[in-house]
Design a protein that fits this description.
The complex is a heterodimer of chains A (349) and B (396).
Chain A: H1 7-11, H2 17-36, H3 39-64, H4 72-88, H5 94-113, H6 121-141, E1 151-152, E2 156-158, E3 161-163, H7 166-188, H8 191-201, H9 203-208, H10 213-239, E4 241-242, H11 249-262, H12 267-283, H13 293-304, H14 310-328, H15 333-345
Antiparallel strand pairs in A: 1-4, 2-3
Chain B: H1 2-23, E1 32-38, H2 50-64, E2 72-78, H3 84-98, E3 102-104, H4 109-121, E4 126-127, E5 144-145, H5 151-164, E6 171-176, H6 179-194, E7 199-205, H7 213-221, E8 226-230, H8 233-245, E9 251-254, H9 261-268, E10 276-279, H10 289-302, H11 311-318, H12 321-330, H13 336-345, E11 374-380, E12 386-388, E13 393-394
Parallel strand pairs in B: 1-2, 1-3, 3-4, 4-5, 6-7, 6-8, 8-9, 9-10
Antiparallel strand pairs in B: 10-11, 11-12, 11-13
Helix pairs in contact in B: 2-10, 2-11, 3-4, 5-6, 12-13
Classes of the chains: A mainly alpha (349), B alpha/beta (396).
Chain lengths: 349, 396
């Protein structure tokens, strides 16, 4: 049943008509979601979708190309500021400003990619970390960027469509997300994608086979930064107000955690990782409302940790979940998905 | 015929089932008023978390003393970790899920800015954001009442005192490069201009700066006889310490942010003595009746044992006092419209802080929604004691 006869079958976007069918069902469900969901859940979906875009881009860099970045909040910030400034100061429409800002982020990604030719592992991590921290400092000092007082996001208009509710924004956002995911899927199955994977597995071997390391490493950084830039540009409109302090080191770390918890080198993993971590980040405080356990946790926290009560417990639970996933499923959530699929394929035997 | 009759009955039943909801206000029942607040309990701003805890203790005290017209306050406080995306999520979840009548306080400019439009669109009242920012009232919004004083007023009061009472002429300003710092700088510049003077130096600080010797050097070279510190608490403490080591001893003045004298004295190892600060609330150890009452009845009874009776904690009470006042004045029949009308009627209200005044909404008058504009000056004495230099002054 799962026999492949040639290479193109292996890399096809849709492996069978059944997959096409389910893909269409999924698309339909995604677009109908705001009709049935409460506004709050649409907001959460927007927040998750933006993180999915960034995680997908970061996974290209970390999971497929084997590089690392602790500075993605910097690209995210460039995307956010770039979009608002291109709209408010240069008068560009949203649909031009967003990719424009993402291209600026990609340009920075290209330059940050250059040291990756010589730096590896922890050294590259520190270089990118420095970038992420520097960007917010620079933005804070430049008056054009609003300094530390921040910037307000203008309204988004596309033609005569004014987007001012979460639900309208969701439609725009989900369209962009699907488009970007398909693009990434396509990129990975082409020659470019195979070059990335070859570099990850053994860069010297790849270069002897004729893969241009300089080109592909910087390209991976640029594409990854582009995705983060798009994510940032959209995030500015979710918050409607941005200032440098929003784009912290913690944000970069969360992006990386999404990719690792989800599963390195897998698009499904990026989606699952971003969804899970965002959901936990927003919802874990509700453990308080579980009968008995909530009271007990609050008591524990207040007596042993600090007066702020359950907030600390929330982080401890958050960290524990991440550790458990990595401990029992090193492939991340994607590993769980593969195992489930295998189990059902041979079920009930 | 039968079908349409059926339809009529069903739709009538549906409408009737909705009817009680149509007339009741969101977040208000016969026995409860739901009030929300966000406050960082974790993350970079966790030190300000005591604001929300102070409000919580205050509400508990109100409930235990009979509530408001038979209704208890149900207080929904959540931790946003000073991350605006989480503030928006929490506010929407509570607003659309539980239903919140009004929002109280809430720490931080960016968390507040992220939900400002949302609350305005839904006309949800919001009283006393815990951050001094012009953004709350410029332009004013019908649903948003600011109690936190604007910093430029404090700066004016300090500069005026230095010039008129102390005969200082050469004023230098050390300010943090953000809205807070620039508001202070602007206030100082305007007051100096009114006296026909100019600053002798303006030195900007970044929050992340750690070596402050060059900054202090610049201040020293300007030969200022008064230095206004509009920086973070840490920077202000360092500047005073370094200046002393450099034998540069002008009169230092600073904002309400740095007016927690016991704290300032302990981190400067005594160098803060003599510094003059503006303040927006009565002092924690003063014998002002309201302070004594709240400390005894609210703090001693409801606060966790590690909590400190400091400015942030009782600011959590100070910011919401006008809200409680208006809720009491509305009477038993509580709606948002009536609440906003009562808020607008608040005149000369005196709680823990400056006198609070609101006016009927006027989109061209920011003082229709900026309630507090008073401040008074205090000087730090040995052992962190405070000497009141002036009475409450109204400065706009």
């Amino acid at each position: 049943m799962d026999m492949k006869r040639d290479y193109y079958e292996d890399v096809r976007l849709f492996s069978s008509p059944a997959v096409v069918f389910w893909f269409v069902v999924l698309l339909g469900a995604l677009y109908l979601f705001p009709l049935f969901a409460e506004n709050y859940y649409v907001y959460v979906a927007n927040y998750i979708a933006i993180n999915i875009i960034v995680a997908t881009g970061l996974n290209l860099l970390v999971g497929y190309t084997g590089q690392i970045s602790l500075g993605h909040a910097g690209f995210f910030a460039i995307g956010a500021y770039g979009t608002i400034i291109l709209m408010a100061k240069a008068g560009l429409p949203f649909l031009l400003a967003l990719p424009g800002a993402a291209l600026i982020a990609a340009g920075f990604g290209f330059f940050l990619g250059l040291p990756s030719l010589r730096l590896e592992g922890p050294y590259l991590a520190i270089a990118t970390l420095g970038f992420g921290l520097t960007i917010t400092q620079v933005i804070g000092r430049v008056q054009l960027f609003g300094g530390r007082e921040g910037l307000h996001a203008p309204d988004i208009t596309i033609g005569s469509w004014i987007i001012d509710t979460d639900k309208e924004f969701y439609i725009l956002l989900i369209t962009l997300t699907i488009f970007l995911l398909l693009f990434m899927r396509n990129l990975i199955r082409t020659r470019v994608g195979r070059a990335f994977i070859a570099i990850r597995d053994a860069d010297i071997a790849a270069s002897t086979m004729g893969v241009n390391i300089l080109y592909y490493k910087t390209l991976a950084f640029a594409v990854s930064a582009f995705y983060a830039g798009i994510g940032g540009g959209l995030y500015a409109f979710v918050l409607k107000f941005i200032e440098p302090e929003i784009f912290t080191l913690m944000m970069s770390i969360m992006f990386l955690a999404m990719v690792v918890v989800g599963g390195l080198g897998s698009m499904m993993g990026s989606i699952a990782g971003a969804t899970l971590l965002c959901w936990l980040d927003l919802k874990l405080r509700n453990i308080l409302s579980i009968p008995y356990i909530g009271d007990w946790l609050e008591h524990l926290s207040k007596n042993w940790f600090s007066i702020t009560g359950v907030s600390n417990i929330q982080f401890i639970v958050f960290g524990t979940i991440m550790i458990l996933i990595m401990l029992f499923e090193p492939l991340g959530l994607f590993g769980v998905w593969i195992r489930t699929k295998k189990y059902w394929r041979t079920w009930p035997f | 015929m039968k079908k349409s009759l059926m339809l009529l009955v069903v739709s009538l039943a549906f409408v009737l089932s909705l009817a009680p909801n149509l007339f009741a206000e969101v977040g208000v029942t016969d026995t409860e008023i739901h009030i929300g607040q966000w406050g960082p309990q974790t993350g970079p701003a966790a030190a300000w978390g005591s604001v929300a805890r102070g409000t919580g203790a205050y509400f508990q005290w109100i409930n235990d003393n009979g509530g408001i017209h038979g209704r208890k306050i149900v207080y929904h406080m959540f931790d946003d970790g000073y991350n605006p995306a989480k503030t928006v999520a929490g506010v929407k979840e509570l607003q659309e899920g539980t239903g919140i009548f009004a929002w109280a306080s809430g720490v931080g400019t960016s968390p507040g800015m992220a939900v400002k439009d949302y609350l305005a669109q839904n006309n949800v009242p919001w009283v006393g954001p815990a951050a001094g920012s012009l953004n709350w009232v410029n332009p004013p919004q019908r649903n948003l009442f600011a109690v936190y004083p604007l910093y430029d007023g404090e700066a004016k009061a300090l500069v005026r005192y230095a010039i008129e009472k102390m005969g200082k002429k050469k004023v230098a300003v050390a300010y943090l490069n953000d809205e807070y710092g620039k508001n202070g700088l602007r206030g100082a510049q305007e007051e100096l201009k009114a006296h026909g003077l100019k600053t002798v130096a303006e030195v900007s600080f970044e929050a992340a700066d750690s070596d402050l010797n060059p900054h202090v050097m610049k201040l020293k070279q300007s030969d200022a006889d008064m230095v206004l510190l509009w920086t973070t608490v840490t920077h202000a403490a360092k500047v005073v310490g370094i200046s002393k080591a450099m034998k540069f001893e002008p009169q230092f003045m600073s904002t309400s942010t740095c007016s927690d004298f016991p704290l300032m004295m302990s981190i400067t190892k005594g160098a803060w003595e003599g510094v003059i600060c503006a303040t927006f609330g009565e002092l924690p150890d003063s014998d002002y009746p309201a302070i004594v009452k709240y400390k005894k009845e609210v703090f001693d009874k409801y606060a966790a044992k590690e909590e400190r009776w400091g400015l942030f904690y009782y600011a959590g009470i100070l910011f919401v006092e006008p809200m409680i006042e208006a809720l009491k004045n509305v009477g038993p029949d509580l709606t948002r419209e009536k609440f906003i009308t009562e808020m607008e009627k608040i005149k000369g209200f005196k709680g823990l802080g400056a006198e609070v005044n609101f006016k009927p909404f006027d989109k061209n008058d920011m003082y229709s929604r900026q309630g507090a504009s008073q401040t008074f000056l205090v000087q730090c004495l040995a052992e962190g004691k405070a000497k009141k230099l002036t009475e409450w002054m109204d400065i706009k």
